[in-house]
Amino acid sequence: MAYVGTVSLHDVEGTVRVTRRFAATPLQGPDDIVDRVADEFPAPRRGKQARHLSRAGCAWLRDSWRKYLDRSDTTMTRIVRRMDELLLHILPGALDDDPPPRFREPIARHRLSAETTRIVSRHVEYFRNHRHRMRCAASLRRGYPIGSGPTEGACKSVVTIRFKRSGQRWLESGLAPCLLLRALHLSERLRPCFAKLQAARFATLAAA
């Protein structure tokens, strides 16, 4: 029904100090949330890593390497190397008699279209450029939570409790603004937001 994202800020002891919640309709899509998060918190987060990994079309790689992301800060470098190795065997024009990678022979039997190749390559390039910032193991050692608990909780508090009540039906035109207001309210930002809008409105009236 909707997409939900969260960003939690922690102190040096790992205690959550504030959590910001973001929501978007299916038509707005997850990119809308990612853009809003990036506007406020420019450093990449694990949620964005998962998004790129999923968009790369490598669910098998995500499942195989997920546990290692929590153990070693060099895991992302190894993931990029594995992706590059696999892409050599499934890009358009790859030789059929080339031996496929042992770690995933069934996938290597396929060939990617030019458009899919472009999309996958873009996400792999994201990992390559930002792998030095994807250090989940170091975050765990310092006591910083990296789990999906806050986001899973936000799915219930932002969407389920408010928008899935008995008999409710929503159109895109009504759902989009209500999701925004709900997320602002639960992030304790609704009152400051309206105060800012009110000040801007008064300024416009004064100028007129």
Concise synopsis of the structure shown:
The protein has 208 residues and is mainly alpha-helical.
How would you sum up this structure, described in words?
The protein folds into 2 domains: 107 residues, no CATH class; 89 residues, no CATH class. It has 10 helices and 2 strands. About 12% of the residues have low confidence. It has 208 residues and is mainly alpha-helical. The protein has a two-stranded antiparallel sheet with strand order 1-2.
Provide the descriptors you would attach to this structure in a database record.
208 residues; mainly alpha; 59% helix
Distinct helical segment count: 10
Question: How large is the radius of gyration?
Answer: 21 Å
Write down how many β-strands occur, each being a DSSP E stretch of 2 or more residues. 2
Number of domains: 2
What ranges have pLDDT less than 50 throughout 5 or more consecutive residues?
A: 53-60, 92-109
Strand order of the largest sheet: 1-2
Helix content: 55-70%
Briefly note the structural class of the backbone. mainly alpha
The sequence of SSEs as H and E is: EEHHHHHHHHHH
Strand content: 5-15%
Shape: globular
State the end-to-end distance.
42 Å
The main β sheet shows up as: 2 strands, antiparallel
Global mean pLDDT: 75
